[in-house]
Amino acid sequence: MAEILAIKPAAIDGPVAARLDKAVLRLTLANPPANALSLSVMAALSAELEQAKANKSVRVIVLAAAGKVFCAGHDLKEMTARRADADKGKAFFEQTFSACAALMQAIVRHPLPIIAEVDGLATAAGLQLVASCDLAIASHEATFCTPGVNIGLFCSTPMVALSRNVSRKHAMEMLLTGETIDAATAKEFGLINRVVPREYLIQIVTKYAQTIASKSSLVVKTGKEAFYAQAEMGLADAYAYTGRVMVENMLARDAEEGIGAFIGKRKPEWTDD
Prior knowledge:
Helices cover about 50% and strands about 15% of the residues. It has eleven helices and ten strands. It has helices spanning about 40-55, 75-80, 90-110, 125-130, 155-165, 170-175, 185-190, 200-215, 215-230, 235-250, 255-265, and strands spanning about 15-20, 25-30, 60-65, 70, 115-120, 120-125, 135-140, 145, 180, 195. The strands form two sheets. It has a six-stranded mixed sheet, with helices on both faces. The protein has a four-stranded mixed sheet with strand order 4-6-8-9. A hairpin with a 2-residue loop joins strand 1 (about 15-20) and strand 2 (about 25-30).
């Protein structure tokens, strides 16, 4: 991987701050103190993700957060206030959970790799956000939980992403106890990839992002899409599908270039097609 460099945090100028540097787009949640996923924050994050699809300069996305909390999940104060509505908040609750489900699926279905950079607490829908990303790297100070059971609201939608990352027993342990786990346990469970010192978190995440950004964007996009698609299939269907994907991949210009470069012992020159 590339040499670790000092990277300054993105400037904060809204609910989601965006900064592009060397093909890596950093999206920083900036809704202190909890970085809660209010409707406005989810809309802003969704808009940034959508815009990134059309920006050919972006090859990798890093999702970070400002402050001591990565994301505390849904904005419970915002939701509680809507209990005064005529329908006791039902329509607003439906809107909120629908928007959240759409955001999480947008992350999984996004053509670009998305890395969660976690420094602080990721709880409930905040943990769901981490679990939905392709990679997750956390500081030693990061913590994780699905505490809904403690307040009478089981973390059913966070469960979807959580159970697709960790074993059933580990997922149920978190969901039924509501207890907080540390970063080392989260790594042991398979929720995150690495645990690093806080002072090196940004640099190491950037190092990973730049390494991935150096690959053919066509190949990375193809691989990410195929990974999630085959994961939802039976064994025979998965092999049939990925076999077709590899045939199409072999016919791509970048596959011809990459294999030729490997055989010729030279660095490939990607054209992203």
